[in-house]
Design goal:
alpha/beta; 10 helices; globular; eight-stranded mixed β-sheet; six-stranded parallel β-sheet
Length: 326
């Protein structure tokens, strides 16, 4: 395939990160951007070098020169935005969290299959080389059998308006908790025997912080935390029967350090040089399109649905329903 022509839906911060990424890629380019405000789209296009600027999402969706659309709108809008794009015949890379719930996600994925289009979730860590490196480390048996995982991802972001609004899918879980859920999935898979959790809610009714314990059929456990209110070390630690592994920054693995039974360092794996880290999901989409695939092997549809199902179960325990679910 020639250079992948990417369109971006929205002009927010993560849209800017993707645009900056595309500027640094040889395999893809920023072809078009769309905003509900034409001026914003034109400013964004001028800043990042997009060929086209559209004042509506539908205009970008109708452009048949677009190979892939990156959806960077608030997660409460993913369902309607993605379905609209699919109905126009566009392939889609949709930001996390993929949808508000499993029901929405399933409808989106079913429509993509019906239309024979690529649709994948942009949970960027899944596509990165370090994700594969960690899997290889665990599969090597160097720390024995992994039995316990701890992971936390907490930021000082409780002043970000969208994260406090139920109507925008606010709360810690869907914004940052999705990463700790994916980290546990990497280590132990998705066959969970029991989920126990608690959350502290904001005045607006979304989770400000949460603590989650997943118990697996083999006796393995994952203890996970996410928050909008505090700053954490972002570590993921995997404890095995012969040693343990510490991952620095589960949101973008910076290093993986392996320790033996004497707590001595046995190996260190450093993050390869990257543009922003977003390039890997774009490359995965390009590879999938070239192979005629409807999903990326790095983040299969089944995985997206499993994580959404787990997050639904957590919100049910907390009594957190978004307005359109009521």
């Amino acid at each position: 395939m020639k250079k992948l022509r990417v369109g971006i839906l929205s002009t927010g911060n993560i849209a800017g990160t993707m645009a900056e990424t595309l500027k640094g890629m040889e395999e893809a380019e920023l072809y078009a951007v769309a905003s509900r405000n034409k001026e914003k789209a034109e400013e964004f296009a001028a800043k990042f070098g997009a060929l086209k600027a559209y004042g509506s999402y539908e205009e970008l969706a109708a452009d048949e020169q677009v190979d892939l659309v990156y959806v960077a709108t608030p997660m409460s809008k993913h369902y309607e935005n993605v379905k609209m794009l699919l109905n126009y015949g566009r392939n889609v890379l949709c930001e996390k969290s993929f949808a508000l719930n499993e029901k929405q996600a399933a409808e989106m994925l079913d429509l993509a299959k019906e239309k024979k289009l690529l649709l994948t979730e942009a949970i960027w860590v899944r596509y990165m080389p370090m994700w594969k490196t960690l899997r290889q480390v665990l599969d090597s048996g160097v720390i024995g059998k992994p039995m316990t995982v701890t992971a936390n991802l907490c930021y000082l972001i409780d002043q970000v308006p969208r994260l406090l609004k139920p109507e925008l899918g606010g709360g810690a879980l869907l914004d940052v908790g999705v990463y700790v859920m994916n980290f546990a999935s990497l280590v132990f898979g998705d066959e969970i025997e029991k989920i126990t959790s608690t959350a502290v809610m904001t005045e607006t009714g979304v989770d400000a912080q949460n603590s989650i314990t997943l118990t697996y059929p083999g006796g393995e456990m994952a203890i996970l935390n996410s928050s909008l209110r505090v700053l954490s070390d972002r570590k993921g630690i995997i404890y095995g029967t012969k040693g343990y592994v510490i991952v620095e920054n589960i949101n973008n693995f910076e290093s993986i350090t392996v320790y033996n039974e004497e707590r001595e360092v046995k190996a260190v794996y450093e993050q390869p040089k990257q543009i922003t880290g977003y390039e890997y999901e774009v490359l995965a989409c390009k590879n999938a399109l070239e192979q005629g695939l409807l999903e990326c092997p790095e983040m299969p549809h089944k995985e997206t649905l499993e994580i959404m199902k787990q997050m639904d179960a957590l919100r049910k325990q907390w009594g957190l329903q978004y307005p359109e679910e009521k």
